Amino acid sequence: MALLEITDLNIEVVTGSGVLHAVRGIDLAVNAGETLCIVGESGCGKSLMALSITGLLPPVARCSATRLAFEGHDIQHLSRRELEDLRGKGIGLIFQDPMTGLNPTMTIGRQLMEVHLRHVGRDREAAKTAAVSFLTRVGIVNAATRLRQYPHELSGGLRQRVMIAMALMAHPRLIIADEPTTALDVTIQAQVLSLLKSLQREHGIGLVFITHDLGVVAAIADRVAVMYAGEVVETGDARDVLADPRHPYTRALISCVPSTTPSPAGVSVELGMIPGRVPLLHGRIEGCAFAPRCALVRDRCNTETVPARPAGAVEICRCLFAMEKRESFHA
Predict the structure, then answer these.
(1) What is the largest CA-CA distance in the chain?
(2) Where is the ABC transporter domain (predicted)?
(3) The listed CATH number (3.30.559.10, 3.40.220.10, 3.30.470.30, 3.40.50.300) that belongs to domain 1-90+174-260+270-331
(4) With a threshold of 0.90, does the pTM exceed it?
């Protein structure tokens, strides 16, 4: 049984101009000890999907799913108290910006201890010991002294390490990390990624890592899910998807990443780009959402419903002509 199971997840957001179909028909699963990276352009629904798992969607958003389960238990029908128990104890959260994820009016120690006192035990000395221990394990020196500091007294890298420590305080089985390295420089980013992978191996934690950086995907992912316009358009083993993508959008994303391989002398390599823009998600979308931007589009793409997963297939490729396009890519 998968640690997290999502089937036909849909999220609608009520706006002044109508209902926005922000997330549409998502199917995903995450196993214990596995890293699933979710990648896509800004605005494709990655963060909303993550918030729906822990019941943190804004009031204007409506969520429905055929199945949304953690460790076999249905999340959709949990009470507010049960969701609060799930957050922290079952599922740890690491947000993109630690300055908004941490309370600026409370010391680091108080915020870490709150998690322990809420989910593990009411002994304050044990909570303080645990806070020092987890700060030390995430690479923060002089951890006992740091407990007395406020978030603004720490660098961005240290604040992100505090967020990781906080996510681990109640020993969760799954961690959802929403672009936690976006605001960090490359050196600190590499340290944070290495730390997450090390802690994951040590504790057998499932990890959902949301990013727009394919370099991060290559570094840490076991599996990858590519999102476009609220849909998952491709899933698969990370190495296979990055080396031989099936969906034209995945291929286009990869072409936009600068190559680290030196070009032959006198040969210029043009960086790829995706023409057009992401479609508005108000109302019904006919056919393939990527069709207006796809170089290989055909008439059928604009009218036919694209199946999420063909019968008998294990992985997703939301494209009518996936195999033909693969041949075109390698021609």
Answers:
(1) 68
(2) 4-254
(3) 3.40.50.300
(4) no
